[in-house]
Write a structure and sequence with these properties.
Layout lengths: L1 H51 L4 H40 L12 H20 L2
Length: 130
């Protein structure tokens, strides 16, 4: 009975975490994607201007610094997303090595693969929304 209660508490916490993730995604997906897209456009325009401006060294330095800053901002978004996805995959791989089974005899892998599919769905939907 104690295991059943603990499992129920884990399920409730997991559902609460998924609800929080959905709420965060609803709040931040569109603005973050818009900022990412605008940053990419700014990088392209600044690089074009930088390539065509050769007369004023001070302007070249300012535009080069701005280009570097915008590139770093895009790098932060990409690196954070990649690190999160990698962390989830590593933890899932660690959990998949266990021999635990659900009461119906199904391996615990079914529950964990839901977690991975959910993360993948979030990233795919976030990038494909227009």
């Amino acid at each position: 009975m104690c295991v059943k209660r603990q499992l129920g508490a884990c399920v409730r916490r997991h559902r609460a975490a998924l609800a929080a993730a959905r709420a965060l995604q609803a709040c931040f997906s569109a603005p973050t994607f818009a900022q990412f897209a605008v940053s990419l456009v700014i990088i392209c325009v600044t690089a074009f201007q930088l390539a065509s401006q050769t007369s004023n060294p001070l302007r070249l330095l300012a535009m080069g610094t701005y280009l570097l800053n915008m590139s770093f901002q895009v790098f932060i978004y990409c690196y954070s997303g990649h690190a999160l996805a990698e962390q989830v995959m590593c933890r899932s791989d660690d959990r998949n090595n266990t021999q635990w089974r659900l009461p119906g005899g199904e391996p615990l892998l079914c529950v964990q693969s839901h977690e991975i599919r959910h993360l993948q769905l979030i990233t795919d939907v976030s990038l494909e929304r227009e």
